[in-house]
Amino acid sequence: MSSKLQNDVLRGTVDMLALKGLSAGAMHGWGIGQRIQQLSQGQLEVNQGSLYPALQRLELAGLIESEWRASESNRRARYYRLTRAGRAALGQEMESWRRFSAAIQLVLDTP
Amino acid sequence: MSRTKGIVARLRAMLGRRSAETRMEEEFRFHLEMETRKNVQRGYAADEARRRAAVTFGGVERYREAMRDGRGTRSLEEFWTDVRYAARSLRLNPTFSFVVLLTLALGIGANTAVFTLVDALLLRPLPVRDPEQLVVVGNPTRVNSVSTGSARTEFFSYPLFQDIRKQNRVLEDVFGSGRASRLDARITAAGDASAGSAVEHPVGRFVTGNYFSVLRVGAALGRVFGPVEDAVAGSSPAVVISHQYWQDRFAGDPGVLNRSITINDVRLTVVGVAAPGFSGEVVGQGTQVWLPVTLQPVLFPHRPWLEQRTVNWLVGMGRLKPGVTVEQAQAAIATIVYNVLDEQAGQAATGERPPVPVSQGMRGMSRLRSVYAESLTTLMIAVSLVLLIMCANVASLMLTRASVRAREMSVRVALGARRLRLVRQMLTESLFLSILGGALGLLVAMWGSRGLLRLASSGPGAIPLDARLDIRVLAYSALLALLAAVLFGLLPALRATRTDVSVTLRANSRSVTGGPLGSGRGWGIGKTLVAGQVALSMVLLMGTGLLLRTLSRLESTDAGLARERLLIVSVDVGPTGARGDQLVQVYHDLLEQIKRQPGVAAATMSENGIFSGTESTSTFQVEGFTATVHQDTTAFYDQVGPDYARTIGARLLQGRDIDRRDQNNSVPVVLINSTMARFYFGTDSPIGRSITVEGVRYAIIGVVGDVIYHDLRAKPVRRFYLPLSQSSELPQEIVFEIATAGDPADLAVPVRDAIVAANGSVSVLSHLPLDQLMRRSLSADRLLARIITLFGGVALILSALGLYGLMSYLTLRRLNEFGLRYALGAQRSELTGMILREAFVLIAAGAIAGLPLAFGGMQLIRNRLFGVSVLDPTTVAASLGMLATAVLLAAYIPAARAARVSPLVALRSD
Fold this sequence. Notes:
The complex is a heterodimer of chains A (111) and B (910). With 111 residues, chain A is of the alpha+beta class. In chain A, 61% of the residues lie in helices and 14% in strands. Chain A is built from 4 helices and 3 strands; from the N terminus they run αβααββα. Chain B has 910 residues and is of the alpha+beta class. In chain B, helix 17 crosses helix 25 (828-858). The radius of gyration of chain B is 37 Å and the shape is elongated. Classes of the chains: A alpha+beta (111), B alpha+beta (910). At the A-B interface, helix 2, helix 3 and strand 3 of A face helix 2 and helix 4 of B.
C-alpha cells in the first residue's frame, strides 16, 4: 500500500524533475539523471530507469522533443530539449508544487 | 549472421526507420554504459561498476514494459517480437518442433480431409446463379431410379412431369431429368467418317429443354438446350457436353462444335459446351453429356419410356417464384399430382396419399448423399475426437517444455514482466505452431481427401466428387488451427506462468513435490491429460470394434440364398432385334447354353437380378383382403425363369417352384414369399388362392422363404415372382443366376465366353459372383469401418505416445527417489512394477471415464450397427485390452530405464 502511494507521487514528480533537468539545455537521459542528483545533492534516490517512461510521456505530450546525435564521448545518444510548451508547463508545475509543499509544510509545522 | 544483422541495423538507421524497440534498447544501453564508466572512474572494478549501474537503473523489464505501454502500439510490436521468438525457439528445439508439427499436421489434416468431403457432398451449393431459389420436386436421392407399374409420386413419368410443368403456378419453371443408363458412344476423329473407333460410355443424363434456363447455366461454347429440344420427339438430335468432358476428351478443341457423336447407333451433334465448373445437378456423378429427354425412345428403342405413364424415371427441379415458400410449393405441386392421378384413375383416391416431396435444392441432388451423409457425420465426430486427443498430446508436450522453461519465466517475472504478457507470448508460440501445423495439414488433407474418395469407391475409379480446397475448407482448417492453439496452448501457458518466483528460483531439481505435470503420486495436470486421451481413445476403439463386427456380420449374414455358389450374369439382348416369342427363345437358348458348361449345377434367369440395384413394384388386389392404406396393395416383384427358387438356393416352404409347365397358354401362376403369405393370409395356406395384377388373375402355386435382395440390413419385404414365360412385357436386359458346384468366380469368364459364342449380337453387361455384388453393396459400411479403424489406430498411438512422454518425464524427475529406494534395498523389478502400477492406475481411470462416454457416443452409430449390441462385451473387452497393452508397453520403456539407473547417478542427477 505504501509503495503504491509512493509510486503515484513519484510519477508526477519524476515528470517535473525531468523537465527541470532540461531547463539548463538539451541533454540525454543519463545526463538528466546526473543533473537531478547533483541538484538534490544526492538526496533524491530515484531509480534512473524510471526517467525513460517519463521522458517518453513528456515527448508524446509535446513538452519536450528529441534527436539522436553524437554525445561528448562521441557515442550516439538521444538528446532531449524543452519545447516552448514544456517551458511553460515547467513554470506551472513549479508554481503549484511550491504552493502544495508550502501547504504541507504548514500542516506539519502546526504543533 | 551477425554481419547481416549489422548491415540490416545500419540500413535501418540510415533510413531513419528503426523500430521504437531498438531505439529504446540503444538508449538503455547508452545509459548503463555511462553509469558504468562513472563508477569505474570512482574506482570500482569493471564487474562491480556494471552491477552498481544496473542496481541504480532498476528493473529493466519493468521500464521496457512501461515504455511499450506508453507507445500505444505495443500489442502489434509485441506480437512480432513473440512471433520471432517463437520461430527462434522452434529452430532451437528441432525434435520438439518436429513431433508437435507432425502431430498437428496429421490432426488438422485428417479433420480437413473429412471436412472437404462433407463440404463437397453436403454443404457446397451448385455452381449456378441464385442457387438458393432452387427446389427439388421429388425425392433428391432417387436421381437414377426407374420404377415401372403404377405411377409414383416421388419421381415421375414424363407425362406426369409435363402435367406438373404445365399446371404449376408456384415455380418460375421446372425441369425434369432422369438417368441415361449405359450409353454406347462412338466418337470418330474429325473428318474421319469411317467407323471402327472404340466404344466409350460417357456419363449421360436425359433433361428437358428448359434444363439450362432453369439452372441459369450458359454455354462456354455454342448453345445450350432450348424449347426446340422439347418440341417433337427426336426432332433435334443435339447434345451438350460438360466443360470438364470437353477438356478431358476433346482437349478443349473448339472444333468440337457441330461434331457428331454416335450414341447407341444414333448420330447426334454437339451443339454446345456448358459453362465451366458445372457438372450437373446430381452431385458426385459428374455428368458429361446432356441429352434431350425427347431422344430417349430414339436411343433406347427397346425401352421407350417417354410416353409411358407407367414408367417413373424423372426427378424435377425448379425455381421458386418470389415470395413463395418451399412449403407452399410442396402443397401446390402435391395437389397437381393428386388431381392428375385421380383423373387417370377415373375416381378420387381415398385414404392417406403417398407424399409428393418438394425440398430445398440449393445443393443439388444426390444418391451418394443418402448413402454417405450419415457415415460422414460419424466420421466428422470421430475425427474431432482425434483432434481432441491430439490437442491433449501437444498440451502435454508444451507442459513438459514449459517446465524446462520455468526458470526463464521466473526470471522474467522477477524482472517485472506481467503475467498476461507471458501468457500472451506462450499463446503466440502455440498459434505459430498450429498455423504451421495447419498449413502442413492442408497438404495432408489434399492427399487424404482423395485417398478417402478412393477408399469409398467400389470400382477402380474414384467417385467424381469435386473435393477441392475452397474458401470454406480453408476457413475451416484455419479455425481448427486457432481452436487447437487455444486448446493445447492456454493450459500450459497458465500453468507455466503461475510460478512463485522465490520458490522456483530457490528450488533445486531435488524437490519431489509437483512440477507442472504433477508429481509421481499426486494427480497433476499431465496425468489428467493422459487419462483424458485414454478415455477418448476408448470411444474411438469401441466405435472401431463395433463397426468392424457389424461389417463382418453383414458380410456373413444369411440373405436366404446360396450366397457362395451363385454367379450373376447380366446380358443385354436388345441388339438381337428379337421380339415377343422370339425373345423368349433367345433367353432359353442362352440358358441351355449356360447349363451345358462344366461346373454349372443349375441356372435360371430373372428380370431384375439379385443385388443388381434394380427393383420393380406393382399394385395388385388379393381376394378376400380389403386394403386400408394404399401401401398395403403394393409389393416388390420380379419376372423369373423356371426353377428359380431352387437355383438361387431359397427355401421352398409350401407348394411348388415355377417350372417348365408354366407357359404362355397355361394358367397364370405366382410364387409369393413368406412375408407376403403371412401378411395377406395369416396362418392359412395361400396355395390355390390368387392375386390380381393389372386385371390378370394369378394362382398362387407356392410360398418361398424370404430373400434379401438389395440391402443386407433391410428387413424382408413382401415380394412375388411371376414366370417370364407368361409375361406380356419382356425385358431387353436379362440376368442369369447360375448355381455352381465350385467357386463361382472360376466360371465367370467361361460362362461369358459361352454366351458370346452362342449369340454374337448380345452384350454381356456384367458377370460377377453374388458374394462380390453383396460386398459391393456394403461399400459405405466398409469405408466407414476402414476410416474409423485408421482413426482408432491414430488415437491409440497418440495415447501411447502421451503416456510415454509423461512417464519419461515423471521418472526422470524422480530418479533420485528411485536411487534412494534402490540404495535402501528395493529390487529393480519392484521399481519397474511401481511405475507400471502408476501407469495402470492412469489407464484404469481413463477407461472408467471413457466407458460411459463410449456408450453415449455409440448411440450415434446405433443405426449403422447390425447384429451387435452397443454393449457388445467382446468389443468392450477387446478395446480395453488393446488400450491397456499399448499404453502399458509405452510406460514400460521409461520404467525399465529408470530401474536400470545406478543409485549413484540417480542421487547425483541434479
